[in-house]
Amino acid sequence: MRGSTNGTQRVSSGLALIPSIARIAVAAAIVLTVNDAAATLGPPSSRPASSGPSAPGIAATEFIPASTATVSTYYSESWSRIVYRGTWSLASSSGYLGGRVKWTRQKGASATFSFTGVGFAWIGPVGPTRGQARIYVGGQYVKTVSMYASAYVARHTIFSASYSTQRTRTVTIAVVGTAGHPTVAIDALVVRSQVAVAPPLSGGKIVNVSSIGALKQALADNTVDQIVVADGTYHVSPSNQEASDSLWIGNAYAGRTRPVLVRAATIGGVTFDGGGGGAYGGLSFEAGAHDQTWDGFNFANMSAVSTGIIEIGGYLSRAAPHHLTLRHIAILSTCTGRATAATGSTWDHAIYVSQALAPGPHDLLFEDIVVHGEGNLASAFHFYHGADKGGLNAHDVVIRRLTVTGTQQAFLIWEPSVFNVTLDTATITNAKAYAIRYETIGSTTPTGIRINNVTSTGSGYQGFFSTLGSEPPGITFSNDSLH
Q1: Rounded CA gap, 383 and 135, in Å?
Q2: Percent over 90 (pLDDT), the chain
Q3: Is pTM beyond 0.85 here?
Q4: Is residue 189 a contact partner of residue 173, using CB atoms and an 8 Å limit?
Q5: Which residues are CB-neighbours of 368 under 8 A, at least 6 positions away?
Q6: Do 212 and 342 reside in the same domain of the chain?
Q7: What are the residues whose beta carbons fall under 8 Å from the beta carbon of 261, sequence distance 6 or more?
Q8: Does 154 lie in the same domain as 18?
Q9: Which domain holds residue 454?
Q10: Which letter, b or e, does each residue of 438-453 get, where b requires 16 or more Cβ atoms within 10 Å of its Cβ?
Q11: Which stretches of the chain score pLDDT less than 70?
């Protein structure tokens, strides 16, 4: 069902995720995803005879689930599914997972949320000013927990529970109002859920690496089917420097004839770290790079300057990258840009999709992408450049399960050569200006742009905006709620 519309504004509610620790996914402030049981991904399937906008990039991306793993996702204190009753306030500290907690001293105040999974936990601060709260699950009293401690600790597991079956449960945290030290705070809520994983790779060549140099060496080897990057933090130089530790995926890898999977040993267990440097690209796919899947990586401590932390294309004179899949990618808040205000410059992005030689970048699949944009990134996804320079931008692109918080604009298309792009299932929180913006250059508009199942809340101006009007040509909406 179409979201309600007020002029060019569509109405919704939101959630956001980011990684930090093993992997965070942020909901309006933060989320963390960790594999309790390490999932081993299986071999890439062969490409279907034909591909289209509904399933691009399947060549090196589809896996057959054979078992389950338990995955933990940390939702921040501002998760849209938490219903707060009573008076709650925000407090900030670098010790908190997302930099903030919600707290109250009010007796009878409560926080209620529902989740589907096999367990949950509550994380928050403890200390001498902290009080008690009662835990209810499904309306039934479970336990009274105390946050009192002789010394202050910013991040502590206050309560957790596990269950033998996965189903939906409703949890209420009710504040007791302890005399003399009543404060109760919520930093994050952890949901443990079971997900399908693929069997170990049978056949094919697997290479385990623990350096950027070894990763690139394995990637250049056409006999390698899977590259497993050991968990840890790896310094990367800006991709366009093409240094020994730059992730410039270009000519050196375009000659591959076999699909390849590059994955973190644990989803979210590998961080590519810029060390506070600027002019990133942390990871760039250029010059005909193709049939690659990258899965489970975080990006931190780098500044995008007129580019994206991840870049697809961008050079008119170079062959188009194609059949690429990025999964379980998290752009952390330490990835920065210059979009400090709603009206600021739209220059620096999380993922920048740009031009290349004909036919333009194509068959791109993005799944489970988390962008924590409070570092003043202009967007999570930006499609720009092509027709204005004589090149072509992307087509046959699918973006699924996108979570964004704090960017200036979350999803931005400003390029007429873009076509067949689907954004399906996204939660966008606190965009400084617009959750989604859709524009063109000249009189030609993009075609086949689909916005499905997208929810946004807290946008500074509007959930959706286009100078082409509230119902612009070339874009359709389904079951969206944007504001």
Answers
A1: 46
A2: 52
A3: no
A4: no
A5: 327, 328, 329, 400, 401
A6: yes
A7: 41, 43, 44, 60, 225, 226, 227, 292, 293, 295
A8: no
A9: 5-66+198-482
A10: bbbeeeebbebbbbeb
A11: 1-70, 196-203, 387-389
